[in-house]
Every structure is written in structure tokens, then in C-alpha cells.
Specification:
The complex is a heterodimer of chains A (348) and B (364). Chain A has 348 residues and is an alpha/beta fold. In chain A, 34% of the residues lie in helices and 21% in strands. Chain A has two domains: 218 residues, 3-Layer(aba) Sandwich (Rossmann fold); 91 residues, no CATH class. In chain A, the strands form two sheets. Chain A has an eight-stranded mixed beta sheet with strand order 6-7-8-3-9-10-12-11, sandwiched between helices. Chain B has a domain of 254 residues: P-loop containing nucleotide triphosphate hydrolases (Rossmann fold, 3-Layer(aba) Sandwich), CATH 3.40.50. Helix content of chain B is 31%, strand content 21%. An eight-stranded mixed beta sheet of chain B has the order 6-7-8-3-9-10-12-11, sandwiched between helices. Classes of the chains: A alpha/beta (348), B alpha/beta (364). Chains A and B meet through helix 4, helix 6, helix 7, helix 8 and helix 9 of A and helix 6, helix 7, helix 8, helix 9 and helix 10 of B.
Chain lengths: 348, 364
């Protein structure tokens, strides 16, 4: 294992984060929960990866593990999480603490519960600076005020002296983003950053993340269940189902030439605001599987309308098509193309 | 020009199933513990007029705090209205007592947002769905189980699960229990308060389809409340947009996306992400700045004026716009309704020159 603490490896073509065959399994009294089951992906600087999936697809657990918030004490971990040349899974907690917050920031879903109610917002941001850098309290406070201004909070000097309950939901989420960006991290992980917010505020927050990504030349991972959000804000998208990646590619790949029946199912089950006349939705039948008893073969097979015999026994591997577009499905590419143009495009 | 809410041609001569006139709901804000002094009011719903006709689905959208859920609660008499009248099928029930409400409750049911919080965890789903039968004594005791199982089957639950408890079900299945319970008394009007917002996309589609199927089968009328515009547009015949306790616009389903008249509706629409990368890139968005003002001290005149890219002063800050008709079944409360959606982009661009949304101070 090599330790490279270079701050700038943006131009050597290597991904900032590369996760290889990550497995996270939680032992429970009912059995082993296979929350993440062999997930691999990369994130480069300056790009936004969208991770889409329903509850229980393992999208949050994957990134909590990347952040080191799920460690080998909590779960059985396998695989590699390479971040700037280091395998984070092998790093001791003391070193992880230097990375978390400083090199990787995380924004959680619920800004109500992730801010401490009894400390001033400015203090909570400054605390992150003091924990990682040898600066004076005054300088840290100044940085906090500066960041609050940058994320679009009016009168940042006054706002920094307020408590979280005095902030609205959108302002709290901005404060969270300010906190995660104050140390200029290389990777920002946003776990459902806008799910608790109204659409108008959501647009403001996502717009802000986009701008800050360019400004800081950071990499961003947005975890969401909203296909609209990924279509508008992500360069690459990764769809997850039952702890595995089912399809990955650019927005165009997934929305205009998707390969996996689960991706199709998602596209067909959301009402479209821009639809000419409203059509009946085509929901995916059944329920997502329990992660203790994941169906054998392709985990999606019990819900898949195009299921074949091989799907029931063999786990499909990711098949790379053009560019970086890959899907884990037993259907042949021709068949996928045919179904997509005949059925899916008609509906969406 | 008229100030009533829906003088729409297609409903002439039809008696509305639900008629809400000038309804207000104010929650007092008090200060002091022993000697409570009323210092103001949260004007959650302010002078709302709304008519819902038999067989239609009226969608109610708006951001958090716009009063949509409060309105639902006032309509179902879970809250008492501060002022105004409520009529169900011509019957004024504004001041009915609990006892008087009972026969009406059979005709007016509600489906709640959170299927985790709205089902009693200590009762089996069989008894949850069967309770309305027992309370209203409309089915003989020995036939309750059969009726409940029939209902369960209809909403897509397995009748064998009669004796299970809510925690044994997934979110989607729980919402089906909520639907079955609302259906038990074969009501005429169902108020759906965010029925799918707690569900995953694939499950959300199942429930939306179920809600639609039941409408035709049982000839139901829906008042459908949600913050998700795409969902509301999908299910509704008419859409009511609320802002800060007031109705901003009422539009037929087909018009709302194509031809919004109120600047607020247009900005709300442009904020909804569209799952189509090409369209998303081509679309010009209007990003509203700031937050919804406090309903304790709402802006004077048009409540949207401080955030409106199109506001002209002083009129927008002094005179409250009334709902007026701009097309068949399409009414809007705005002094300067949009001729087409492009107008607003022009307006907001003109504004953007003066105050850039994200100030860019020197780098850290």
C-alpha cells in the first residue's frame, strides 16, 4: 500500500475515487444482510456521478462505507476503496479522520437532524476548520462566514451567529453544504441532498452544488431516487438494485438507449411533467427483495417482464457497450435495443 | 370578468360536490405562559374559494407552508375553519358537531401521507380496515371479515394477511391498507393528502394506478394534494396552485404545463427536474431566490410580489390581485398574467442584472 498525500492529481487521468468489488454485509439475528454486493465504480475530478435506486438498493451504504462511517466493526467489508491512491478500507481510523471532512465532505438528507441544535451555525462550521487546520478561532469563524455567503445565505455575518432552528430547511441545507465545503474537499458526497426540500429550493441547492463543483474542481456524487435530478445534474449515472449496480453510463445512455429492464421500469413508472397527454403509468410489478434473501441469479428477475431461464440461476456480469455504458443483464444487446425502441420509447 | 373561482363552462348547471367559500384558517400565535397574549396569526389558509365537481380529480399543489394540508384538514373538519363556509353536496357543514358530522364522514374520507404513522401499530390490518364498518354499523358483525377481505383483494393485498400487523408490511402495502380503509364506506369524496410522497418510484406508480382505477370503479371524486407537480399533473383534471395560503392559479390539466399564467406557477414548473437530458439542457430555468415569507406577516398586496420576477410597483405591493378568468376553466390571481412562459424568462433576466443570485467573493 502506497501513501501519496499529493493534493493535486487532477491531470494524470486517474480517477479520484475508485471502488472495486465492494461488499458490505451486516450480520443480524435474521441472517446476513447483503447491503452492498460487489459494487465497482469510479469518480473523476470535475464530474458528478448520480447514483439512483430505490430504498434498500445499497446506494447510501456504499457511500457511508466510502466515508468510513461504516467500518469493519459494524459490518463485514470486502473490496477496495481507492481514494487518491490509498485504500481507505485499510486505513486506521486516526488517518481516516484526517480525510473525512478535509478531503471528502458529505451532505446528508435531513438538514434538521444533522446540525447540532445547541450550537451556533457559524461555530459548527468553524469547528470543522479547527479540527483539521492549525488556525485561530477568529480565522476559522471568518472562513465560516465567508462560506455561508458563498452558498447564498443573505447577511452571512449575522446568520453565522444564529442557531439552526432559526434557519429554514433550505438555509439549513445550505449551511450543511457550507460545512462540507469549508475545507475545500476533493470529493463531495450528497446523500439525497434535496429530498426534504421543495422543488424551488431543490433547484437552488442543486444549482449551488453545480457551481461549487466547478469552482473547487471537486468531484461530486449525488445519491437520489429522482431521475429528473440525475438527468439534469449528473455527467454519469449509476443505477443500483438490491446491492448491485445494474447499469451505468451517461445520461443520454440511460435515458435514450438504456439496456437494463430495471432502468426501463423506472423510466416508465414516473409521471412526466412534459408528457403531451397523460398516459397510464407502467409500474414495476412486485416489491424490492429483502436483502437477506436476495433472489438467486439476477436479483431483478422476479420483477422483470423479460425474464429468461438463465436469469434465475446466473448472476449477470456488467457488459460494456460503447463508451462507458455498461449493464448487467442477460438479454442480448440486439434484444435490448429492440425492446427499448419498441416498448420503452413509446411510453416515455 | 368575474371573481368567483370556477365559472367554468363544462360545469354549468352541475352542483359541486364540495364547495369551499372564503375559507380562512388562522392559528393564533401567543406569547407568555400564564397570561397568554395573542400577538398575531399564522394565516395558513386565507380566503380560499374552491369547488370540486362530482367525478373529477382536483389537484392541489404548492410548497411547504402554502396551506394545502391545512385546507385538507379544514375540509374534512379535522380543523375548525376560522371563517367561511363549507358545503358538501349543497349541505352546509361548517359548524356541524362531531355527531352531526358522522353521516357526512361516510361520504368523505381521507388518505394520509405517512403510511407508517397513520396506522395503529397495535391493531391488525383486518381490524383497521374493518373499523369503519363497526363504527358506522353498516355491515352485520358476522359479515365484516368477508367485506374486509374483499376490500383487501381489491386494493391488491392478499386476503390471508387479514391478521397481520402494519409493521409486517412494506410502505406501499401500508398505503394500500390506508386506501382500503378510506374505501370501506364507499365514500363519494376522498381527500388524498400526499398519498405517494413517502413511497419509492416503482411503488408510487402502483398506488397512483390503483387510485385511478378505483375512481372509475367506485365513481369517486378526489381532492389530491401533493408537492410533486408531475404526480399532481398526472392524476388531476384541474390543478389548483397555492402560495402562502392563497390560490394563485386554477388551470385545467392540459394547460398547466403548456400555458401557465401565474409567474409563480411558471417558476414552480421550471424548478421541477425533467428526466430527459436533452430537454433538461434546452430548458431555460427560472430559479427563485430566497424562501417563502412567513405566513404570520405575509407581504402586502400580492403575496408573491417580493420574489416575483415580473412584479411592478406599487400595484403588486399594494393591491391584492383577485382570481379572474383568463381562459375556459382557467383562472389566475395576478395583475400581470403571462402571455406565454417565455415572458418570465425575459423578466428574470432583466432582474438578474441587478442582483446576481450567487455572489462570488474572492477565493479562500
Amino acid at each position: 500500500m502506497t501513501h501519496r498525500f499529493s493534493r493535486d492529481d487532477s491531470n494524470n487521468g486517474k480517477p479520484l475515487l475508485e471502488v472495486r468489488d465492494l461488499k458490505v454485509q451486516f450480520p443480524t439475528p435474521d441472517g446476513l444482510v447483503k447491503a452492498v454486493d460487489g459494487v465497482s465504480f469510479k469518480i473523476h475530478r470535475g464530474e458528478t456521478l448520480g447514483v439512483v435506486g430505490e430504498s434498500g438498493s445499497g446506494k447510501s451504504v456504499t457511500f457511508l462505507t466510502v466515508m468510513g462511517l461504516i467500518s469493519s466493526r459494524d459490518a463485514h467489508l470486502e473490496g477496495e476503496v481507492m481514494f487518491k491512491g490509498r485504500d481507505l478500507l485499510k486505513l486506521p481510523e486516526v488517518e481516516m479522520r484526517h480525510i473525512r471532512g478535509k478531503e471528502m465532505g458529505m451532505v446528508f438528507q435531513d438538514p434538521m437532524t444533522s446540525l447540532h441544535p445547541m450550537y451556533r451555525v457559524g461555530y459548527q462550521i468553524a469547528e470543522a476548520v479547527l479540527a483539521h487546520e492549525a488556525t485561530s478561532k477568529k480565522a476559522a469563524w471568518g472562513l465560516a462566514v465567508d462560506l455561508l455567503g458563498r452558498v447564498g445565505i443573505p447577511k452571512p455575518a449575522e446568520a453565522a451567529r444564529r442557531y439552526p432552528h432559526e434557519f429554514s430547511g433550505g438555509m439549513r441545507q445550505r449551511a450543511m453544504i457550507a460545512m462540507s465545503l469549508v475545507l475545500n474537499p476533493d470529493l463531495l458526497i450528497a446523500d439525497e441532498p434535496t429530498t426534504a426540500l421543495d422543488v424551488t429550493v431543490q433547484a437552488q441547492i442543486l444549482d449551488l452544488i453545480d457551481r461549487l463543483k466547478t469552482e473547487f474542481n471537486a468531484a461530486v456524487a449525488i445519491i437520489t431516487h429522482d431521475l429528473g435530478v440525475v438527468a439534469e445534474h449528473c455527467e454519469r449515472i449509476q443505477v443500483m438494485y438490491a446491492g448491485r449496480v445494474t447499469e451505468t453510463g451517461t445520461g443520454d445512455d440511460l435515458f435514450y438507449r438504456g439496456h437494463h429492464p430495471y432502468t426501463w421500469g423506472l423510466l416508465q413508472s414516473i409521471p412526466r411533467l412534459d408528457a403531451g397527454q397523460t398516459q397510464r403509468l407502467l409500474p414495476i410489478k412486485g416489491l424490492p427483495p429483502s436483502l437477506i434473501f436476495v433472489p438467486p441469479g439476477c436479483a431483478f428477475h422476479p420483477r422483470c417482464p423479460y425474464v429468461m431461464d438463465v436469469c434465475r440461476t446466473e448472476i449477470p456480469t456488467m457488459r460494456l457497450e460503447e463508451g462507458e455504458h455498461a449493464a448487467a443483464c442477460h438479454l442480448s444487446s440486439e434484444e435490448q435495443q429492440r425492446i427499448f425502441t419498441e416498448k420503452v420509447l413509446q411510453q416515455t | 370578468m368575474t371573481t368567483t373561482s370556477q365559472p367554468s363552462t363544462q360545469h354549468v348547471g352541475v352542483r359541486p360536490l364540495l364547495k369551499v367559500s372564503a375559507v380562512r384558517k388562522y392559528f393564533p400565535v401567543t406569547r407568555g405562559i400564564v397570561f397568554q397574549k395573542r400577538v398575531g396569526d399564522v394565516q395558513a389558509v386565507d380566503d380560499v374559494d374552491l369547488e370540486v365537481y362530482p367525478g373529477e380529480t382536483v389537484g392541489l399543489v404548492g410548497e411547504t407552508g402554502c396551506g394545502k394540508s391545512t385546507l385538507a384538514r379544514v375540509i374534512t373538519k379535522l380543523h375548525e375553519a376560522t371563517a367561511g363556509t363549507l358545503e358538501f353536496d349543497g349541505e352546509d357543514y361548517t359548524h356541524y358537531s362531531r355527531k352531526q358530522m358522522r353521516p357526512l364522514r361516510r361520504q368523505m374520507q381521507i388518505i394520509f401521507q405517512d403510511p407508517y404513522a397513520s396506522l395503529n401499530p397495535r391493531k391488525t390490518v383486518g381490524s383497521i380496515i374493518g373499523d369503519p364498518f363497526r363504527i358506522h354499523r353498516i355491515v352485520a358483525k358476522d359479515r365484516i371479515k368477508g367485506s374486509v377481505q374483499e376490500l383487501m383483494e381489491r386494493v391488491g393485498l392478499s386476503p390471508e394477511h387479514y391478521n397481520r400487523y402494519p409493521h409486517e408490511f412494506s410502505g406501499g402495502q401500508r398505503q394500500r391498507v390506508g386506501v382500503a380503509r378510506a374505501l370501506a364506506l364507499t365514500p363519494r369524496l376522498i381527500v388524498c393528502d400526499e398519498p405517494v410522497s413517502a413511497l419509492d418510484v416503482s411503488i408510487q406508480a402502483q398506488i397512483l394506478n390503483l387510485i385511478e382505477d378505483l375512481q372509475t370503479e367506485f365513481n369517486l371524486t378526489y381532492l389530491f394534494i401533493a408537492h410533486d407537480l408531475s404526480v399532481v399533473r398526472h392524476v388531476s383534471d384541474r390543478i389548483v396552485v397555492m402560495y402562502l395560503g392563497k390560490i394563485a392559479e386554477i388551470a385545467p390539466q392540459a394547460d398547466v404545463y403548456r400555458d401557465p399564467k401565474h409567474p409563480y406557477t411558471a417558476t414552480l414548473l421550471s424548478a421541477v427536474p425533467i428526466p430527459d437530458p436533452e430537454l433538461a439542457k434546452a430548458r431555460r430555468r427560472i430559479i427563485l431566490q430566497g424562501d417563502v415569507p412567513s405566513p404570520i406577516n405575509p407581504p402586502s398586496g400580492c403575496r408573491f410580489n417580493p420574489r416575483c420576477p415580473r412584479a411592478q410597483f406599487p400595484i403588486c405591493a399594494t393591491e391584492e390581485p383577485l382570481l379572474r378568468e383568463v381562459g375556459p376553466g382557467h383562472t389566475v390571481a395576478c395583475h400581470f398574467p403571462l402571455a406565454d412562459a417565455g415572458d418570465l424568462i425575459e423578466d428574470s433576466r432583466r432582474r438578474a442584472g441587478s442582483d446576481s443570485p450567487l455572489p462570488t467573493p474572492p477565493a479562500v
